[in-house]
Structure formats: structure tokens, C-alpha cells
Amino acid sequence: MASLFRLLTVASLGVTLALAGCDDHEGERAMEKLKAFFNAIKPDALLLRGLTPGVTTEAQIREQLGKPETERTFADGSKRFEYPRGPQGLNTYMVDINPQGTLSAVTQVLTAENFAKVHIGMTQDEVRRLLGKPGEVAVYRLKPETVWSWKWQEGGPTGEAFFNVHFDASGVVYTTSRSDVLRGH
């Protein structure tokens, strides 16, 4: 806790010094970067606190959660914002906004139920829409394949694991796998 306090103090001091020599536009950009930094390290419970379906507006969501990693708008006017917690965080939240512009749902998508929905023949875009941004991407040119990996809270003896999606050269899923998170190496 003390190290987090020191980190926040140093970050605040750095921003204050940076803002002292900035014009208004540069100052706004610096503040946005600082907000993004604090959102990245803020515990999930604090980040999501007070979000109420049917009440919380899109503007309030953006103010509280910051800029989404990905934003999709659908034909009916509804939207989905993607908020991965990481790099290599254990949670990725999809925030759904209804056509009226208020919160519909917040869903943590890195779950066994969602992983089970990944099937042979899915495209990279379909997987991305389901699971969000992967924490790691590995390209094996000789095989040829690309593997996307998400760290998640598996709940087994090791607690955390990787869910891996293997794409062939045409960018289509041909298999999935699971791997342990190795510690102490």
C-alpha cells in the first residue's frame, strides 16, 4: 500500500510540474493521460462503482472508465465499449449502452463460459468481439499460425491460467488450448 501511495505521489508531482509549463491544450492532454493511468491501476470494484443500468449515461461511463480500447456501434444505435484490465490483466469488461444512451450491462468476458463459445472457423474479429483484446499475441511463421492468449482467473490449484486461441494462416480458428502461468522462472 505504501508503494502505491509513493507511486501516486510521484505521478501527481510529475504531472503538476509538467502542467506548469504547458498551454491549455497540452495541459488537457496531460490530464487525460494521468486519468488513463489512474484508471489502469484502479481496482475493478472502484472503477465500476455506481454504474447503474438504465440510469448511467454514456458520458458518465466515459468520464468514469475513460477511453475504451474498442468502441463498436450497432445498427440499432446501441454500443459496446471494451475495457481490458491489463496488459495481462485477469478481467476484460464489455460495457453495453442501449440505443437511448444509457448503460445496459457490464460483463466480465474472460470466463469459461465465453471461452467455450470459441469454435473452429471463427474469424479473428469474431473472437475479438467475444473476448476483447488479447494480452499476448504470438506469431509462428514456420507453422504458420498466430496464437492469441488471455490470462484469466481459472480457480484451479494455480489460480491463473492462459486461454489460447490458435488461428491458421487465413486468420481462422483451428483449435484452442490452455496453458499454465509459470511463476518464479
TrEMBL record:
InterPro entries named among the record's database cross-references: BamE-like, BamE_dom
Keyword Membrane (UniProt): yes
Presence of keyword Membrane: yes
GO cellular component terms attached to this protein's record: outer membrane
Signal peptide positions on this chain: 1-20
Segments forming domain Outer membrane protein assembly factor BamE: 109-173
Coiled coil: none
Keywords annotated in UniProt: Membrane, Signal
Protein name: Outer membrane protein assembly factor BamE domain-containing protein
Organism: Trinickia fusca
